[in-house]
Write a structure and sequence with these properties.
Length: about 150
């Protein structure tokens, strides 16, 4: 059972988060990359609500089943570009901050910087932070797929 619906209880906070989403969709960051980043962070965080939503959104946007099914194993799967791999590596590092002493090592950052210009890289960082925030809202409130956060 959902504990609360943040969009109803704290509509200003919800609108602020939605503003980040509007920024991301107009940022120039490739939309397939944005979908993959949201899906991968949501998988790591165990957010069923967001995994469901972002899988469906990616599918509607033309994403293939192979890429959606294998994003959790992107290192071994042949379906991703080098730029997408760099974004996924950055996503994993920035999502798992407490897992190592240097959470986002230069190697991961520099690889992402090779594939994205400064504005795209900034948008990628914001995308990762935003989906992690959404995941924390949905997991904490026990949001279920198909409901509102």
């Amino acid at each position: 059972m959902t504990r609360m619906t943040v969009s109803e209880v704290a509509p200003e906070a919800y609108r602020a988060m939605s503003g980040l989403e509007r920024f991301l969709h107009g940022s120039g960051l490739p939309q397939p990359t944005l979908h993959l980043v949201k899906l991968r962070a949501s998988q790591i965080n165990g957010c069923a609500y967001c995994v469901n939503m972002h899988s469906a959104d990616a599918k509607k946007a033309g994403e293939t089943d192979e890429r959606l099914w294998s994003v959790a194993a992107w290192r071994e799967a042949p379906f991703y570009t080098d730029a997408e791999r760099a974004a996924l590596a950055l996503t994993e590092a920035a999502t798992r901050l407490a897992d190592r002493p240097d959470p986002v090592p230069d190697e991961i950052w520099n690889e992402a910087a090779k594939h994205y210009d400064e504005a795209e890289l900034a948008a990628l960082v914001v995308a990762i932070a935003t989906i992690n925030a959404w995941n924390r809202i949905a997991v904490t409130t026990h949001s279920r797929p198909g409901t509102r956060v």
